[in-house]
Amino acid sequence: MWKLLRNLLLSAGVLALGLKLALWLAAGQQAQWVASSLQRWGELSWTGASGSFDGDLVLSGVQFRPKPGFEAATFSASSLRLHTPGVLWLLRRAITRDAGVPEQLGVYLQDINLPLLRKIAGGNAPLWFGAQSLVPFETFACGGSAGLEAADFTSMQVQPKSPRLSIDYRYDAAAEQLEVDLRIDNAPFAQVGLRTELRQFTPQMLDDAVARERVRIASADFNFHDSDFLRRRNQFCARETGVDVDGFIDRHIAAVQERLKASHIVPAEGVVEIYRELLRGGGEIKLLSLPREDIAPAQYDTYDPEEVLRWLNLTARYNDAPPVLFKLFFLAEPVEALAGIDRALVHDPLAEPEPETVVVRPEENPVLATTIGTATKPPDAVPPPTPPVAVPVPVVPPAATTARQSRDIAPGALPPDAAPIAGDTATVNDAATIPTRPPAPRIDPRLDPRLAGLPSAPPPPPGSTAALVWQGPRIDRLPESKTTPRERPFAVVSYAALEGQSGARVVLITSGGKEIEGKVTEVSAAGVTISVNRESGQARLFVERARILEIRVARRG
Known about the structure:
Among the domains are: 333-351 and 494-557, Roll (SH3 type barrels); 353-422, no CATH class. Strands 1, 2, 3, 4, 5, 6, 7, 8, 9, 11, 12 and 13 form a 12-stranded antiparallel β-sheet that branches. The protein has a 6-stranded antiparallel β-sheet with strand order 15-20-16-17-18-19, with no helix packed on it. A two-stranded antiparallel ribbon has the order 10-14. The protein is an alpha+beta fold. Helix 1 (2-37) crosses helix 2 and helix 6 (229-241) crosses helix 7. It has helices at residues 2-37, 87-96, 115-121, 150-155, 209-214, 229-241, 245-262, 269-281, 305-312, 366-372, 403-407, 425-429, 467-470, and strands at 42-45, 48-51, 57-66, 75-83, 104-110, 164-172, 177-186, 190-199, 216-226, 265-267, 284-289, 314-318, 324-325, 328-330, 490-493, 505-510, 515-523, 527-534, 537-544, 548-554. 25% of the residues lie in helices and 24% in strands. It is globular, with a radius of gyration of 34 Å.
């Protein structure tokens, strides 16, 4: 009896050792498959590979070194675990040397380090999000620091840990459907999740532009769950700035809005309120998108961003509260808060045309004139300086300076180093009061940037090696992009353009993230009166000029 039991134990041990050896070999084979799959983008290295009895492949000391052009994909991790369908699947795949894309796989990275995150966070203080906490707007209005440090976390009684990244996907080749579930667990700060479902997806989309055009997003679900870090951060920053928690939250939201405005973005009022609720009570924010499937995501960058946002049908929900429409306004130009809008707008189809540009004729350049044969007689009012002056500006012929342009220049408005305009009596009389320019050192014609690239001799015979250097240096322009962004469905006009436009239908974007649409009733220096539609009829709304960030008019046709 004891002998039989001993034999069974020995047999079980031998089988376990054999299975472990087989899993080790299979793990090494699959690790090489993973490395070869990523070879086109870079080199994946690891210090050890092993297989577990549940069929998982474990790589330790993982590091990915991308090729030039893919530097954003650089990462390292203490371990990488591939969760496979099972041990039999792993052994069968190793034996058959299957190199196809698995229909189901999970990737788990421990202690991951992504240098790209620090670049995305930005170089200006404060950063868009914490480099370690990954919390958006971590130090906005928190004393001006670029980011929280270890001493700050200690003061908050927070012990940072290395983040964990997990990616699970399921691919149905017959239905061309891919489901991806991405999660980042960054305790004790927050957990971030993204789940998306793609249709008409094929692995060929990595190389085929036609395949990328066929891909559609069926749904996307994003969630951000606070791990009580925001409450600790609010209390810490309130102490640092000498205000209470509510006062810091108000300052924080104002700072976030100002940074977004500088990036042409204004969040809608409902979006700001959801973020305020998250700051006050913690919890979770969920974003759900059910996009239109008749437009390919690969074409989104050719459309107006606000139009794309409408197609995404994006809604936001705080905890179990009713969802609101997640809306952002993308301004035409950066703006300064409450500073008026005239300087912030560049597209003004209703305003008066800009005045003509006044061209001031520079002093004569003998070096350039004798080289290219365009020397002209200098103006009589000011004799040519001695020695000759070489300045890096083009020579303007006398015909380019008209009497109307000369009258546009007020007396004394010329810069100190500008030459007087020939044929203008008022300007010539004032020339005596203009200080003379000190003589500049003579520049070797061979080093004059205006003469660079001009041939100095007849062209050499065809096929000669001298033809490679005869023409000299030149600038080659890159071809223009074939994908032209779509024109925005509206025109941005200035405040002055509204005068005399009574009855015109406009959309006003305010500094608080409100969108006011209606007909212009009255325009004054203080603001605009808009007639808007209400359920009970027409109503008039007065909007202060200082609150207006952008004025939009629908394009005709």
